[in-house]
Each structure stands twice: as C-alpha cells, then as structure tokens.
C-alpha cells in the first residue's frame, strides 16, 4: 500500500503565505479543528487561490433560496459525476453535518433518484447534473420544471452556478491529485438519535 | 425527507422462510449483529435466493489467489461503475474491515487509479472494470498484462467472475430499489491507530 | 482463418466430472443432440457451474407470466447490447424454436423496436435493455409503464432478473472467449410454412 | 405479432420504373432468384437510386486489394455498429456465400475481435469501425498500422470508403424502416462439408 | 506551424481529368471564383467522384419543401456532430450566403437549440441529428413530430437523406484529411445591413 | 427567425453598476471598441462577477510558459467539447488575433489533431481535452508526455487550470443562454498577406 501525497505540486508552509491567505486558513482551522487540504494545495498559486475562494464564498456562504445542505447536495452529486475524490469526501462530510443525516451524502453520490430527499430536491439535482454533464441541452423546459417545484430564477442560477463552479473544482483536484484529509471520512457519521 | 423502504417488493418474515434459508440468515445475523437487507429482500424468491448465495459463496468464500480484501475491492469498484448503492455501501463496509483501512472503500469507489493500493491491485481493478463495462473488448493483451503482475489464469477467472456476478447483483438491487442497512455506513470507519 | 477454441481455459472431459454435473449434461445432450459448449466450459469450476445453472433454471424453466419465447427475447436483446456472441447465437436458436419464427432472433438482436413482435413485447424489451445498460435510472415510471401493458410486478421481476442474470453470463462468456457450437447457427431457420 | 411492411414510403411497381432501373433490377433478380428490397424501396427516388447504386458498384464490384468477402465483412461489422437490420441480414448472407463460411457473418456482426478471420482482417475491421464511429480521431498512426499488415494506401481508401458508404446506407435503411427479404436470413448457412 | 496539404492522397491535375469531370469542375470554378478542394481531392477516384456528386445534386439541387438554406443547416449541424472540418467550413459559407445571415452557420454548428432559426427549423435539425447519431432509435413518433411542424413525408425523406449523405461525406473527408479552401472561412461574413 | 436576447436573466445597465465593475467594463470597451456581453450578463451577480474575472485574469493575463495564443487555443478546443457558443465565438476571435491566423480558431474548434499547429501544441490540447472531458483518468503518464514536449509542471498547471476554468465558464454561458456579440464573428478573419 502506498499513501499518496496531498498534491502533485509543492505545498507551501503556512508561515510562508501572504497575510490574507494565512488568516483565512487559520480561521478555517479554528472552526474545523484541522486545515482542509484544498487550502494548502491551492495556496501554491496565490492569485488563483484568492479568486477560487472568493467565488466559492459568493455561492456557498451567501443568503439563498437553497439551504446550505441543499447546496452541498449539489456539490456531492456533481462531484460524483466527475469522479472527484476530494470533493465527494470533503463536501460529503459537510453535507452530513448540515443535513444532520449520516446517510444522505453516500446516497446522493451514488444515485440521487433514490436518496432520502424530497421530490423538490430531486428536481434540483436533476438540473445540477444536466449542467454538469450535458449543459448544451439546457432549454426553457428545464426552467419551467424547476419553477413548478417553487424555485425562483435566482435559485436556478444558484443551482447552475454551484454545479459550474465544482466543474472547475473537480477538474483541478483531479489534475493535482488532491488528497482529502483523513478526518473528513468519518465526520458526521454518528447515527441519528 | 422520505425514508424509502428496503424493497419495492414484499419482504417475507424470517419465521415464514424455509428452514435452510432461515438458518443461513440466522448465521449471518449472529456473525454481523444484524441481518443485511439483501437476505430479506431476495428471500422473496427462494429458488433465486439459493442460487444467488451459492454463487456468491463460490466466489467470495473460497480459497483464492486474491485476498478477501481484494475481492471486496472488485465488488466496490464495479458496483460504483454500475451506481449500485446497496453494494457500494455494504461491500464498502466489508472492504474497510478486511483491509483494516477506513479510507480505501471510498477511494476505490470514486477512482481506483488514485486509491492507496498497490500497482498490482490497480491492474486487477482495471481488468475488473473492463469486464464490468466493456467486456466485448477483452483480448489476449489483458491476460498478458495481468500475468505480468503475477496473477495466474485462475486468479484472472476469479477477478472476472466477481465482476460478472456483481453485474447481476447491482442490476437486481437497482431494479428492486434495495436499501442498505443503516449499520453499514459507519462500519470499519474507526481511524487507524 | 483461425478457428478459435471453445474456451481460454482448460475444458474438462465429461468422464472426469462429478456425477450430478455429468447427468445434467447428458440430459441436455439427449434433448438437443449435442452438448452446448457452455456446459463444458463452465464445468471448469464445479461450484460456479452448479450455482449458474440453478440460477438459470430458476428463471428460465419456471412458470411465469412470460412465455419461454419472451424470456429468450430478453436474453437475445440484452446479450446483443453486451456483444456476447455465445448468448446471441445459442439463445437466438432457442428463441427461433420457441417462437416458431426463423426471423425474430436476428430482428431482436439488432433493433427490438422494429422486430415483428407485439407492442407489449417491445415495452418488455425496453425495460430489459434499461436493466442491462442503465439500471441506475430505473424508477417508478418504468413500473407504471409495464403495468399498463398488463405485466404484474412478478412479471417485471422476471424481466429484470433475466436481464441481470445474462449481464453475468455475457461477461463470463466474453472473458472466457466462449465459442458457440456450430449447430446453433442454423437451428430453427427453416422458413415458416 | 405484426409483420412490418418493407418501407415507410410508397414502393413503386417494377413495371412503372424507368427502363434503366427496371433492367438493373431484373438482372439482380435473375442472379439472386428474388429482388432484394433495397432496390424496390430506394426506387421511390430514381435520381438517388441511380447515384446510390453507382456508388455501391464503384466500391463493391471493382478490382481491389480487398477480396469481395473482405468488403462484405466491412459492411457487416460497421452496419452492426449502426444497428441496421437490413444491411446486417442482407450483407451477412452475401458474406457467408463469398467466404464459403456459414459462421463468419454472425461472428463479425457481434465482435470482430473474436471472429474466425486473420489478424490482417481484424486490423482492417478495426480501421473500418474507427471510420464508422470515431472518424475525427483518424491519424497517421492508423495508416501506419494498416501498412504493416500489407495494405496499400489504395486499399485503405477502399476500407474507409466502404465504411463511409454504409454509414449512409445504414441511416437511410433505419429512417425508411427498410425490411430485409426473408430469403436472406437462411442464405449461405448450409454447414461446411 | 505546419500547413497541412489538401489530401493524404495524390491530387490529380485538372488537365488530366476526363472531360465530364473537368467540365463540372470548371463550371463550379466559374460560379465560385475558385475550385473547392472536395472536387480535386475526390477526383482521385473518378467513378466514386461521379456517384458522389450525382448523389449530392439529387439532394441539394432539386426542388424540395426545404429551402436551400435549410438544407445547408442540416449539413452544418450534422457535420459538426461528426467533427468534419471541411464540411463545417465549406457548407457553413454556403449557408451564410443562402440565409443572408453571417451568424447562423456558427450557431448551428455549436448548438442548433439556440440558433436564430424558427421552431420548425429546430425540429428539422433535431431529426437530422437523430439520423446522424442515433438512427437505430427512429420511430413513428419522430415522423409525427415533424408532420406537426408542417413537413410532408417527402420533406422528411429529404432531411434524413441529407443527414445520411453527409454521414458518408464527413467520414471520407476525415479519412482523407481533406482541407477546406482558405476562401470559405471568410465568405458570407459581411455583417447584415 | 428569432434573435435571442443576450441572457435569460436581467442585464444591468452600466450606469447602475458599482464603480469597480463599471471601470473594468469601460476599460474593455476602450480596448475592444465594444462591451463583450459576458461582462454585462455576469454583472447580474456582482460578487460572482468579481471572482470570475479575477480568476480569468490570474490565468489568462499573467506571465506563463504558454503564449497568449496557446491559452486561447485551450479555451476554444475545450469550449467546443462543451458546445459553448459564447466562448467558441468570442475566444475564437481573440485566438485569431493573437495567432495572427484567420483559420486556426475554426480548425481547433472542430479537430485539434488536424489544425495548423505544432506537435507540442497538439500535445497541450490533448491534455486540455482530457481535463475537460475525462479528468478522472489523468495520471503520471500524462505529465510525462507533456514534459517530453518541454512543458514544465507549472505550464501543465496552466493548461489544466485554463481547461478547468472554462469548464465553469462554458456551463454558466449555456445555462444563461449567453449570446456572443455579433462583432466577434468577423474579428481577425482578414486573410494573411
């Protein structure tokens, strides 16, 4: 057995990073108890790092018609379509925690059609998957179907933009061979009481 | 949120099953601490049940040039290619336990090329995936490549037969909407010490 | 021109087989006039042989809402999707005989949508093909569509289980390079009178 | 069971056709003993009929480094990739006759890699299949590989042009629902002596 | 940068061609101001040349329920599906000229669903694309859908036949590495006034 | 004919935008002579706008081992794989200008294997396409192949990151139905002198 490194590329040390990046990373560490590898790996390119996390936060941290758990469902489902280990494992953990559900991440990663989620959430994921794998075929009928489930056009932008952003993220992680922290695998798996 | 049932079809009660099936199931329950749903769900058709588990045991329980962990890797990798939730979750748990490795099941399910396994195991999984998704193209070169990794022709039969058996199993589980027991999700995830 | 052997693996002689296997094979020989190669080739692994044919018989020999010809249609259509020469040729012969129709096997193998079969049979094959190549997407709508053609849920299990069993069989035959007996190619082709 | 008609479109009567087309068809009838449906079905459009058969003859009747049996192998393999019943059945019959081999057509239609043909013929069919399904990726390496099997550049044009012509033919037959004559199914199937 | 030649094969000189071919080519040159490379490249095989252009003219020059611009849309959309540079560039130019629209060719080549064309034309292209990439699945419902847009059955034959003819043409051009004349890239791009 | 709008979503007016965004847009307008629609369309979401262009500039404006023309080749080739009209048309124009080559954009969009570019550039685009459509399969051999063409590991990151960023961009444009400005279609097409 070989344990692969966390990146194909050099990984900078925290102390060598610019102030703004180091602060951002320390804040995450404080909240999570560890530094998710994506921060260290992408820090190899500071400008791209800053744009990446600015984009991420603009979609994942803002107010939205989608709950945070729903946004993580989109990440997990589309990252599975792209076979991105880092995003499935890390965002799967976050999804379990936000949804307070130890099963939903694996369910959504394998087949959203049969996950323990609502019909509305299934429609959301069907659209996210279309953005991820067949965006050429998106048309008015897709928007109509989502509106019938109560999604506004701004919600639809959110769904599509998250799927699009992780299309980028998944490809970067696959190219870099980004390794998820061991901690993520177990997070949020304690059974419901 | 809707919790889906364990099967689209009626699930017999243990007490109503023929003696041989009941004994088999009780033996598993004793060993695992619970009855994996596949036993209850497939018991709807006793003749098929008996053939299914006879086939399973002939491949998974026998002496082989493949370790039990390696056989479970084949199950997990090919079941992921077929998007079968039951087999990924249940056999992922068994793989973690046999391999004494809490990470390997998720790694193999997403991308065997980057899992923490040996080159020999990667070659094994590459062949298993070809059996699973493109068996028409199997040719002598595939056998040569595996022999170069030290696999005998009987080992190769084992690899292919496991991939083929779970091609059946995955399709049955997807048709039936077979639900994995909640217990499997957490099994074997305690971190290595 | 090279005539390929009937298997990549050693083929046991009838006289060296266990009693139960030899009896089964002699019975087939008596009925068909020759021993289909699948019996000899799979006899290389007695335990798997017994489970394989027990499973086969549980699906193909039992009482069912599907006629024997319909069950063979499922075999031929899905084996064509998997490009399995043995099953297309051998079960194509059986289909011609059961259906008393010299054309239907080739039609179903190439494009079930245009075969000389009923609309009900087309719906049956559409579902079998979904089980064969895209089982992740099976949902309630598939069951509803089949019920509208008069299929019971037990019939639907039969359709899916046959498609699933031959998913296994096709992959084994492709891995082993199992060669169909020359006799099958001509069987049942005498024109309708 | 419904027997489908030979075409979705009106089929002209022989007596109503222009002289040149009628003569061509009568000549085929004399040689084959029946009129293959492709002649009647395409006669619906005389100008296209004339161009179609002029093209066909320019490839299939001329002197070539490929035998007539080899040219029919190309037709059968690529028509199977396009799921065209008419061409598989009709040209399968012609292939069996030219090759004096009752098995080769079904073998080539399902998986040319395992047919009873030479390595040179397998290389020929690998290229024909690339022209049929992935012509964008053709490059110098494909030409080099064929030259190593002794094919001249003119032979390679022949291989590619036959695959290209039947790309047209298969699509026309599928659009028109062209039905093969019953006679083709049995032709050339008498066993080798 | 390497400028590739116009063909992998020898290109005959105009003066060495048979009279009928030379006349045809000179006529095109007079009309267009240059000789499109397809004429020179295919002239390597006179019989095939004659059949090719007879077929082309039978579809593209005749009276039809489709306008000439509509026929060129079919060529461009399906040639893009086949990744054929020659046909996209040359017929894109012709489409711009016939449609008096400098944008429509690029739009149709990338995604006909969003081109500045009518709903009727989108339905036409949806069918043409099905003929091009999935003709096995054509059925009565496709004909019904086109009739609802006012297409006659003869129009539908035209749509399908053009898609089928360029399935041939695209594969020939890709095999031969046929290079479009530089002139085509700019033709018809002057903005609308 | 219907001319589609430049976005499915409301497009803000320049005067209503925040100062930083307005300045950025006016600067582009000054340079190009018009405002590319992507600026107006994405301005609907200011935070995402800022992150998008920060990311874009970090990849496309910086010093790199790739020329600006090479970076645009990556955009055009991968955007074609994703069928994104906006990016093919707009970045095709930029590529023609940077490369001072009126043909290369259309060539790269259809089939980079046959474009008038160097072998090194073909290797670059082969990797970019793998990132775009099959990133799960990236492995060490891909890095080795690029290093043999003289690319450094930082160059490889650039190639992959551009392909990844436009995976995002293409999906956004397809979801939004972003329309390219008419001006782009003609830019850079004047023939080489």
Produce the secondary structure layout.
Six copies of one chain form a homohexamer.
Chain A: H1 19-32, H2 37-42, H3 46-60, H4 68-81, H5 85-99, H6 104-110, H7 119-133, H8 140-148, H9 153-176, H10 182-186
Write a compact overview of the structure shown.
The structure is a homohexamer. Chain A is mainly α and about 190 residues long. The first copy, chain A, has helices at about 20-30, 35-40, 45-60, 70-80, 85-100, 105-110, 120-135, 140-150, 155-175, 180-185.
Written description of the protein model:
The structure is a homohexamer of 193-residue chains. The first copy, chain A, has 193 residues and is mainly α. The first copy, chain A, is globular. Chain A is built from ten helices and no strands. Helices cover 64% and strands 0% of the residues of chain A. Chains in contact: A-B, A-F, B-C, C-D, D-E, E-F.
List keywords for this structure.
homohexamer, 193 residues, mainly alpha, 10 helices, 0% strand, globular
Question: How would you classify the quaternary structure?
Answer: homohexamer
Q: Pairing-aware structural class of the strands and helices of chain A? A: mainly alpha
Shape assignment of chain A: globular
Order of helices and strands of chain A: HHHHHHHHHH
**End-to-end gap of chain A:** 37 Å
Estimate the mean pLDDT confidence of chain A.
96
Bin the helical content of chain A. 55-70%
Largest interface: B-C, 40 and 41 residues
What can be said about the biggest beta sheet of chain A? none
Strand content of chain A: under 5%
* Poorly predicted residue ranges of chain A: none
Please state the CA-atom Rg of chain A, rounded to the nearest Å: 17 Å
Please tally the helical runs of chain A, counting DSSP H or I stretches of 4 or more residues: 10
What is the β-strand count of chain A? 0
């Amino acid at each position: 057995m070989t344990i692969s490194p966390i990146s194909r590329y050099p990984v900078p040390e925290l102390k060598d990073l610019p102030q703004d990046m180091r602060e951002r990373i320390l804040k995450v560490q404080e909240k999570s108890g560890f530094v998710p590898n994506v921060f260290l790996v992408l820090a190899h390119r500071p400008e791209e790092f800053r744009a990446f996390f600015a984009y991420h936060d603009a979609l994942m941290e803002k107010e939205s018609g989608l709950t945070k758990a729903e946004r993580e469902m989109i990440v997990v489902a589309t990252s599975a379509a792209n076979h991105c280990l880092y995003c499935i494992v890390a965002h799967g953990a976050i999804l379990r925690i936000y949804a307070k559900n130890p099963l939903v991440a694996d369910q959504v990663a394998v087949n959203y059609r049969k996950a323990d989620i609502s019909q509305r959430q299934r429609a959301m994921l069907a659209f996210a998957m279309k953005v991820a794998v067949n965006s050429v075929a998106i048309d008015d009928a897709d928007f109509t179907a989502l509106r019938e489930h109560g999604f506004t056009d701004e919600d639809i932008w959110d769904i599509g933009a998250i799927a699009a952003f992780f299309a980028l993220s998944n490809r970067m992680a696959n190219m870099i061979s980004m390794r998820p922290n061991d901690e993520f695998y177990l997070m949020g798996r304690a059974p419901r009481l």
